[in-house]
Design brief:
- The chain is an alpha/beta fold.
- The chain has a single domain, classed as Aldolase class I (TIM Barrel), CATH 3.20.20.
- Helices cover 31% and strands 18% of the residues.
- The protein is built from 8 helices and 8 strands.
- Strands 1-2-3-4-5-6-7-8 form an 8-stranded parallel barrel.
- Strand 1, helix 1 and strand 2 form a beta-alpha-beta unit.
C-alpha cells in the first residue's frame, strides 16, 4: 500500500504519517511540488531515519541522496530526462514513476521497480479527473515493474480491483478526507490482501 501526501501544507499531516509508518506496512510518497527546498528539509527532519526509509521523494533526487533516501519517484517528463543520464544505471537508486495507460506502463524500462497507473476510478482528491476516461483493470504485459492502481481508490471501490492486473494500490483523497485516515488505510489494506491471497 502507498499513501500520497497532500500537495499543500497541513498541520495534522506529519503526526498522521508518523502513526501510519509505525503501524502499517506502507510506502509514503512525499509530493510537495510548491514547497521551498529549505521547508522540505525541515519537513524531512521531523521523521526518523527509519521512517524516511519508507518514504519516496517526488522530484527532489538530490535531497533524497542528502537524507539517504534511495527511493525516488519520477513524473513522465522526469522519466524521459533521467533515462538519458547515468542515473538510470545507479545501483543506489530505487525508482518508481507515474503512467496513464497500460501502453506507457508496459513500455517502462526495467530500472523502474513500480509505477502508478491512473486514473482507475474517478478521482476523490481531484474533482472531475478520471470521470470520463478510466484505465482498464487488465492489460499488463510488463512483468518487471510492480503495477500500482491509483485514482479513486477507497474501501468502497477497492473490492472492484479483484481479478485485476494490479499488485498494489495507492491512496490519496480517500485517506486524507477520511474521519479516521488510519482506519481507512487499514481497511483498504485488509480487503486488498484478502483477495490477493485468494487469487494466489
Amino acid at each position: 500500500m502507498r499513501i500520497i501526501t497532500l500537495p499543500y501544507p497541513d498541520n495534522r499531516e506529519i503526526a498522521i504519517l508518523k502513526d501510519l509508518l509505525n503501524s502499517l506496512d506502507v510506502w509514503v510518497h512525499l509530493r510537495k511540488p510548491t514547497l521551498p527546498i529549505d521547508d522540505l528539509r525541515k519537513y524531512l527532519q521531523q521523521f526518523t531515519a527509519v521512517e524516511r526509509s519508507r518514504m519516496l521523494l517526488h522530484e527532489h533526487a538530490a535531497l533524497a541522496v542528502e537524507y539517504d533516501m534511495p527511493h525516488i519517484h519520477h513524473t513522465a517528463q522526469q522519466r524521459r530526462d533521467w533515462s538519458k543520464t547515468a542515473g538510470l544505471n545507479s545501483a543506489r537508486v530505487i525508482a518508481s514513476t507515474s503512467t496513464h495507460s497500460w501502453a506507457d506502463f508496459n513500455g517502462l524500462p526495467a530500472c523502474y521497480r513500480a509505477a502508478f497507473i491512473s486514473p482507475i476510478f474517478p478521482s476523490i482528491s481531484k474533482s472531475g479527473y478520471g470521470a470520463d476516461e478510466q484505465i482498464p483493470l487488465l492489460g499488463r504485459s510488463n512483468m518487471h515493474t510492480e503495477a500500482v492502481a491509483l485514482g479513486g481508490i477507497s474501501s468502497r471501490s477497492i473490492p472492484d480491483l479483484e481479478g485485476s492486473d494490479f499488485q498494489d494500490f495507492a491512496l490519496c483523497g480517500a485517506f486524507w478526507q477520511a474521519a479516521h485516515p488510519l482506519v481507512e488505510a487499514k481497511r483498504c489494506q485488509e480487503i486488498f490482501k484478502l483477495f490477493r491471497k485468494t487469487r494466489a
